[in-house]
Amino acid sequence: MAGLDLTGRTAVVTGASRGIGLAIAQAIASAGANVVLTSRSQEASDAAAARVSGSALGVGAHAVDEEAAQRCVDLTLERFGSLDILVNNAGTNPAFGPVLDQDHGRFAKTFDVNLWAPVLWTGLAARAWTGEHGGAVVNTASVGGMAFEANIGLYNASKAARTTGTPTVERIDALVDKACRIAGEAGV
Length: 188
Fold this sequence. Notes:
Layout: E1 10-13, H1 19-30, E2 34-39, H2 42-50, E3 56-60, H3 66-80, E4 85-88, H4 104-133, E5 136-139, H5 153-185
Parallel strand pairs: 1-2, 1-4, 2-3, 4-5
Helix pairs in contact: 3-4, 4-5
């Protein structure tokens, strides 16, 4: 992130205890931002935050736990005063093998974490900060969302949905805003 100055900004990175999420958190922090790192456990989040230079906070918040996500957003605003960047990075793939061999539990977990969680966190961020003050939302995905690969069909489908779902959410929100403005102007 050479040349990027995020001083005074605050980012929340889901699924940030290791791998891509941790690397993203480290890069954002090196650009000067405050960073909140989430993972399923407080211990893992704290350990990851300790590996980030600058102002970093670990928060135990499973990506699909609505109450924990809300607490994380509230804590972010309380501690840093803004939530300017949301990186929806958390992901999972418990459903290895042919799609037709999967049970509902694996199917639901894959789509809950890989698709529902970004919608949840983006909605919370928008209502708490970015909807009024602006900001950025980054949804990490996978090249698997653009192609077929044996034995990870559910994962790839969930990542394809995440990729196509991001602009869909924006378009739906824009249409709703426009419809509300038109209705308001018409006195409806």
